[in-house]
Amino acid sequence: MLPLMCTTPYVNYPQLNLQQFYMLPTSAYVLPIVKKETFDQACQFPEPIKEDAITNNMEVIAEKEMTSLLIFLSKNISLLQDSVFEEFVKENLKTLSSFSKDIPNIIKKRYVQINKTKEEMTKFIIRRCFLFIKSQIEYEEQEDLSAEERDRQFYHSFFSNDKEFMNALDHQSIDDIIPFRKDSKMKTMNDTYLRKLFASKKFSSFYSKFLTQFQQICILENNEKIDNMTKQIIKIIITRDFAKLKSYRRFPWKDNEILKCEQRAKELYTKYSTYSKADNNNKYLSKLDSHTLIVLEKFSESQE
Predict the structure, then answer these.
(1) Which of 61, 86, 198, 224 has its CA 20 to 30 A from that of 264?
(2) Contact indicator for 208, 37 with CB cutoff of 8 Å
(3) For the segment 220-234, what is each residue's pLDDT rounded down to a tens digit?
(4) What is the number of H-type helices and E-type strands within the chain?
């Protein structure tokens, strides 16, 4: 090895290319800058659609189809032919059927089995009448109370100053006739309960107003039932617990049931309201001539 003094000066060595070892930014090498992707470039290579997005979109469509199914059945189920229903399913329930082709038929079969009884109609009528009365008198309920206690509070507030109603109780307390309470003597809205209720001129007056709006109240309530059932059924379908569909009970009212319920509401007023009978008698007597009225009066006197 030559002595250091004898070596060739450093300047004569070929220049080291440091870029071979270190990535230094120069005019030849520039750090890459991420550019914003244009719309056209994005369209050439679209991102794959996430599975969750597809599922959510199917749920939205299935929910709309379920609503249309319930509306269709509520209006047509009493006279619905199989061929007509199959055509409706084919044209309108494609997404719903994709979860299971049996869903529409299960819903239809269960809907046929569910029928409103006269007792259920009476219960619905009286409860909706009380809701109507509360809206008319601007009655405010205490939300922190149980449903049973709220009923008790309303009965006392509405009937305590009603002489006709209190006389009809025949020394019973108001609590004794409130139905569906544990300690109540009235377990249902039976004949005795209805007679005592309609003995109140105050209640009968509100009930007659309630009848004029009854059909509209039923329609609005039924639309809510359809919305609620749709949401519940979609949850059942998503979890694929199809067995629950066969035992589901909270169906909306059929159109023919709404008409029957309206007729039942009128029958209650005619049968139990003494004020309804008085009105009918007045209308009947007003049509009689004076001679007939005299004959009726003499007949009633002879019977005394």
Answers:
(1) 224
(2) no
(3) 999 999 999 999 999
(4) 15, 0
